[in-house]
Design a protein that fits this description.
Layout (H helix, E strand, L loop, with lengths): L1 E4 L14 H4 L7 E7 L6 E10 L9 E9 L2 H17 L4 E6 L4 H9 L3 E6 L2 E5 H5 L12 E3 L5 H13 L23 E5 L2 E10 L5 E8 L4 H19 L5 E5 L3 H10 L7 E8 L4
Helix pairs in contact: 2-3
């Protein structure tokens, strides 16, 4: 088996293996990928995509999240994971983890043999429909006039607002937030707080290729952060209910204590699907 780096230039070679929603992500700042291929045919026998975490945070240890893993057989899967570990060592990563809908027997064998602890558990993600969002109490009242759709601001205002988020160390789900273009986010469902021409808060929504919308950032600066957050949620909820079909799905991720509490408050009793979660704490010699 030969190991190749997966890049923006060659990812099209693996269309039959890598999920469509991940194909465009490899060009992002902290995404990496490896493919194990047969020496004769060049066909993929194993592969992995991951994103480096905490690279912008000097106080937190570097981590990595595996976003996709494939192994035709356990042996080649172990080979790709061994190459992954070598790459992670260069980035001084201390912990690797993942949350994947399901694993084949061969993939599970490869991960277990490589030292990963595995468990079946409830996902951190929940999916809600536009219809469910439209029934929320917050969607019944119009937002304040200082809340604007993303389409109302300029790229320069957007960039300045993003740097405000970075200054306050708020990245949402996006490790590479400072590097992402405004065009990543839906201009009608995303919104912001505009004060004297300056952006003081964002609710940013991204459309996953072939999949649901996902809320990737929710942040507002003090002193009126709570009321600004409420008004942005009100704006986004009304936009989803107005512009999208009732069955349109929105993904909400419980990625920290604050987001978990908010999601439970908005959608009490809503459960995530069962997934396979894994973790490896890395100790280098």
């Amino acid at each position: 088996m030969m190991i190749r780096e997966i890049t923006e230039e060659n990812i099209q070679d693996y269309l039959d293996f890598i999920p469509a929603e991940l194909l465009g992500e490899i060009k992002r700042e902290y995404w990496r990928g490896l493919a194990g291929t047969e020496e004769t045919s060049g066909g993929m026998t194993a592969g992995v995509l991951w994103e480096l975490k905490n690279m912008e945070d000097e106080e937190e240890a570097n981590e990595a999240e595996i976003m996709w893993f494939y192994a035709k057989n356990a042996s080649d899967g172990e080979g790709v994971l061994e190459s992954l570990n070598r790459s992670l060592k260069n980035d001084e990563v201390k912990r690797v983890y993942f949350e994947i809908p399901s694993l084949s027997d061969e993939e599970e064998k490869a991960l277990s043999a490589s030292g990963y602890t595995l468990e079946i558990t409830e996902s951190r993600d929940i999916y809600v429909s536009a219809e469910e969002i439209g029934t929320l109490k917050i969607s019944k009242k119009k937002p304040e006039s200082y809340v604007h759709s993303l389409s109302d601001i300029s790229p320069r205002q957007f960039k300045a607002g993003i740097m405000t988020c970075v200054f306050h160390d708020r990245y949402g789900l996006l490790e590479d937030l400072p590097f992402l273009p405004m065009t990543r986010f839906d201009p009608d469902l995303s919104c912001c707080v505009l004060t004297d021409g300056s952006v003081d808060g964002f609710l940013l929504v991204h459309k996953i290729t072939g999949g649901p919308f996902i809320v990737e950032l929710l942040f507002a600066v003090q002193p009126d952060a709570d009321i600004h957050l409420l008004n942005m949620m009100r704006c986004a909820a009304r936009a989803v209910a107005r512009l999208e079909s009732p069955e349109t799905k929105v993904l909400l991720r419980k990625h920290n204590k604050g987001s978990t509490e908010l999601i439970r408050k908005l959608f009490p009793g809503k459960k995530g699907e069962m997934v396979c979660r894994g973790e490896l704490k890395v100790f280098y010699r």
